[in-house]
# Entry
Amino acid sequence: MARSKTAENYVASTSVRKGNNTLRFLLPFIVIINVLLLWFFISYINLFPAYALPSPVAVLKSFREEILAGRLINDIIASLWRVAVGFVLSAILGIPIGLWLGEHLRARQAFLPILNFFRFLSPLAWIPFAILWFHIGDKPAIFLIFMATFFPLVLATMSAVDTIPSIYFRVAQDYNYKGIELLTKVTFPAVLPQVITALRVSYGIAWVVIVAAEMVGCQDGLGYGIWEARNGLRLDSAVCYMIVIGVLGMAIDRLLNQLTKLPNVRWGYER
Amino acid sequence: MKDKLTKSRLILENVSHSYGAVAVLNNLNLVVNQGEIVVLVGPSGCGKTTILNLLSGHIKPFSGTIEREGIIRTVYQHDGLFPWLTVSENISIGLRSVEDGSRSKNELQELLKLIHLEDFKDHYPHQLSGGMRQRVELARVLAGDSDILLMDEPFSSLDYQSRLRMRHELVRLLKERPRTVVFVTHDIEEAAQLADRVLVLSNRPATICRELHINAPKPRGVTDNIVNENMNEILKELGLQAFHDNSIN
# Structure
């Protein structure tokens, strides 16, 4: 019977997955250990002078120093806050606008060139305007994050709507889905897997941009930390900030990745 | 749940349709009576699906009139289920017009039982086999107050054995919940097994070139004489029987 066959396939695929799990975690761990050993080795034989390539020990010391001084935690919170606000703002505006543009051919034709134009403008080009309009503090950084993520999100959502199989809309018509209900119960869930992917990509952009954004017009934040380390020629401290930026970026991406495990979006990744 | 037939009828009168310069239908007349299973067969591209789209109202005819009486639902070839909804939620779409909450809950349970998928009610479509998915589609169109089912090659994406099983399943479901059915297929065997009336369509622009009434009781086996006889008739009409005769000579 079809019923038992599907159940068997299920069991088979989960047990194969479990067997691969140990290796899946072990392999990246081995690579990281080796990269660290290489770093140790290069700084041990003094291939580069210590001020140009800080040793792992120096970086560990500066970690201790930054944490004890309270700077690191403060900078982490400042950066996370700016990215969160800018990113949430652009998601709240970008996704609905993308849905609307996806559904209206004329509007899409009208707005596509200008959206593309702004997408290709590096967000860093907005730095002078950001400072002039929003002075210093959180606002210019939030503005830059918004400019960096809004356009990719709108465009990704819009093209996702464009690729919805027409059969879903026929079924929706058969069962009288109209207006806002059509949007929230058919169009949006149909693009949700792609929107989640777009969110992950644009979050990546946001995290890259925040470092540059905080180098000007800010008095704290991870980007400011690196800038200050550069000014003081403290590359050990810069590396310490770089490690924090990389690890935090990965951690938040893992969080966003949890969204792809929601049962009502699994279909978008499994077939 | 509707387990009795209510008034339903479909009438096409002098309907012609064309896509650009290509005439698809030419003065087609068709009356589908209440409770009847009408199967349309014909060469591919002859306009079978166009007829279904006209009946459902998705497209308007170039000329002629179409009368519809009753609530119409369509079963699609595949992918007609929303992949972001579970089996239960997909079937519940068919119950949207039912306002009484407890009635719709009961009906959902009945339908799940009817298609033998109670254990799969929380599964998503991509976790089911093709046959199971089509059973869910059948449950959805049978839900609520539907009167007429339009079926567009609903089993054509299944393997042969699942197809045979689904034909029996459809006959069984229609015994419990009678509906008026217009069924489009290229599968002559399917037509002979399921139909009360087979309409053989000509090449484009499509006209009805043969009408066969099959009165034998259902379910009908693939090897039943009545099925074979009617298959022969349809094949002859489609000009396919000739190949068979030649190959013997």
About this structure: Chain A has a mean pLDDT of 89. The domain at 55-270 of chain A is CATH 1.10.3720.10 (MetI-like fold). DSSP finds eleven helices and no strands in chain A. Residues 40 and 56 of chain A are 6 Å apart (CA to CA).
